[in-house]
Amino acid sequence: MYPLIERDLIRLKIKIGRDKLFDLLRMNGLLVSKRKRKFFTTQSHHWLRKYQNLVENMVVSRPNQLWVSDITYVELNGEVMYLYLITDAYSQKIVGWNLSQDLKAESALYALNMAFLFQKNIVDHSLVHHSDRGVQYCSYDYTDLLKKKNVWISMTKPASPQENAIAERVNGILKEEWLVDIAGETNAYPKKYISQIIKIYNDMRPHEGLGNLTPNQVHDKGFKRHDTERVIGKKYNWKKKTEPIKARSENSNAIGPNDYSLASCSSAELASASSWYCKIIETL
How far is 201 from 215, CA to CA, in rounded Å? Predict the structure, then answer.
């Protein structure tokens, strides 16, 4: 959020860093609160073939090198629905999705077909598909399509969600920042809601791990995501590249000695800011 409002802060001559902003949001109850998990979407106790984990210690350096898949739940119109997601590990873009009322393999296959439909020109044997050992991802129809597209199949070890941390993180972002807020909606069009949320996530929401770029900027427009390479492991981490990292000209998060008080902003200045940003200021 800080990069999105940084220009407004500069224009209003308000000197406040990211950490201080988060402290102010926390003091006023404006941070997103975590929710406990209510439903489980993975059934890995089945007779279908499970595949080995191929991505541990894998260096991801380009889009469409590694896709990660997972399922989360959505509460809408008084019922529980299931959201199938396929995310590109490099750009963190959601490349395929499907909203369904069931946990059948066909629902997962719909999301995979969407990913292949919009991500064209994938070279044979250049892409790895990683998931948990859920029955949907082990089904014949799902694995046969991956094999037909010459995609490597990778799966986590039993009871090891940390081996699919990127997919779990994307689930958490959607759930905590959007999905919990629509749980009380009635007479809504579920797929329309989800389509809008994913569009905002892909096109408008900056990611700190992407250098405050959006997933579409990194995936579709070729922006460099970061000064480090992503290394996938049980707990993915960052590894510095061999070339030197460019030093920052200045610390944009530093708070100077002549800080402006938020209360000193004039009403005209506050009115020019966005409504949600005004709400933050007015609570102080």
Answer: 8
Q: Which of 109-118, 131-140, 268-277 has the lowest mean pLDDT?
A: 268-277
- In Å, what is the CA distance from 99 to each residue of 13, 36, 92, 106, 238? 44, 21, 19, 11, 33
**pLDDT score, position 235:** 44
Instruction: Give residue 225's Cα distance to chain centre.
Output: 14
User: What is the set of domains in the chain, with CATH numbers?
Assistant: 62-225 (3.30.420.10)
Q: Which residue has the tokens 């390479």?
A: 229
State the DSSP H helix or E strand holding residue 88, giving kind and residue range, or none if neither: strand 79-88
Q: Which residues partner with 145 through β-bridges?
A: none
Highest averaged pLDDT of the listed ranges 144-148, 228-232, 275-279: 144-148
Note the pTM of the prediction, 2 decimals: 0.69
Q: Please report, for the chain, how many H helices and E strands are present, in that order.
A: 10, 8
Q: How far, in Å, CA of 175 to CA of 167, rounded?
A: 12
DSSP letter for each residue of the chain: -HHHHHHHHHHTT----HHHHHHHHHHTT-SPPP-----------SSSPP-----TTEEE-STTSEEEEEEEEEEETTEEEEEEEEEETTT--EEEEEEESS--HHHHHHHHHHHHHHS--PPTT--EEEE---HHHHSHHHHHHHHHTT-EEEEPPTT-GGGGHHHHHHHHHHHHHTGGGGTT--S--HHHHHHHHHHHHHHT--BGGGTSB-HHHHHTS-----SEEEEESSS-EEEE-SSPPPPPSS-TTPPPTTPPPGGG--HHHHHHS-HHHHHHHHT-
Structure tokens at 136: 């949907």
- Please report the pLDDT score of residue 14 as a whole number: 81
Instruction: Give just the sign of the alpha carbon dihedral 226, 232, 236, 239.
Output: negative
